[in-house]
# Entry
Amino acid sequence: MTSGADLFVVCKQCGSEVSPYITECPYCGHRLRRRAPKLPRAHAPSRPARSRLGSVLGGRRRRTPAGAPARGPRYGSGRWEGNRPYATIALVAAGGAMWVATRAHPSLYFEVLLIGSPHGQWWRVPSTLFDYSSGLYAFATLSTVAIFGWLLERRYGPLLVLALFLGLGAAGALAAIAAYPFPVVEGGNAGALALLGAWVAPDLRAARCGSYYEGDLLGAGVIAVLLLAMPFAEYQVSWLAGVTGGVLGLLVGLGLSGLPEGER
# Structure
């Protein structure tokens, strides 16, 4: 049964006994509390129910086998989730600005393009990542960078996004230089596939273990196939550079997914 102390409270201003579920004394108007206390619900569940939006976005929870992680990484999990994706914005803006500049001055396209061995002009290795001759190729690549760069930056921060795009993109270009006597490397397909691979790696591991994950592996696979098929439409695009960047991105993503939550 309810105790007598729970049935009323005493107003300090006028001394009247009033209900404990009001904020002002009805006799003198004195402020009793800032907020009225919450009323307990009858037959309330012991655990809070998931919201409808959380059920839709979270998907169906799968049974986790013994030894597997109970839950994969979430979108925006980490200390960077509240920051703006400045690194991703900078990469997309640089690619778009270079495409506009090469349309205005066509000679600039060949000045930053990597054709053959650099021969002392090693600055062409990173500069060719922002050089596009086709608007369709630029749109597909920069859209991939915008999507997966933003997702990765919310999880791991801007430095990793820059390192993946520039470092692994340059590694793809160097692989093409080493494999072909007269290579032509254009655009940032290697860097974009590196970002994509690093993002889907934890979800691939979670799917293999049968644990819960939030990523859309089918959508990511369609985007990856589109970028990998781009060399068949644009001969300047190096398929070897793209494959190298994607594979290295997967390896980096698998390594990051194995780190403890506090060290990411």
User: Anything to note?
Assistant: Residues 135-156 form the longest helix (22 residues). The CA atoms of residues 1 and 181 lie 89 Å apart. Residues 1-5, 48-73 have pLDDT under 50 and may be disordered. The chain has two domains: 11-35, 79-263.
